[in-house]
Design goal:
This protein is of the alpha+beta class. It is 21% helix and 43% strand.
Length: 131
Amino acid sequence: MQPTYKHELEFKVRDYECDLQGIVNNSVYQNYLEHARHEFLNSVGVNFKDLYDRGIVAVVARIDLAYKTPLKSNDGFVVRTRVEHKGIKYMFYQDIYRLPDEKLCLKGTVTTTTLVDGKLAVCDELAKALR
């Protein structure tokens, strides 16, 4: 059974994201996930830059990635995201599926937290938006 996602964002692999083996370099997947997280936040009314400008710094504390099937140049794919708020952590569960066959390419868990005025704290605005 597939998890219930709250957001999805489609991409297409660009040639320069591939390594000598002709597959997407492992580090590029983190860029895909980050962009999808920012777009997800925008979709729930939270702007990453606006948070920063107001003294709220959202940071990645940990990333766990499981690579399943490589993406290649010109592959279409979708990043699907769901999130849970646990104490001072925001757990983003992000999976990448190749299109159109829906082959799972990556399973990721990105643990984030926030610093409010320089101190580790829950950002009430973010917690409310993610409910």
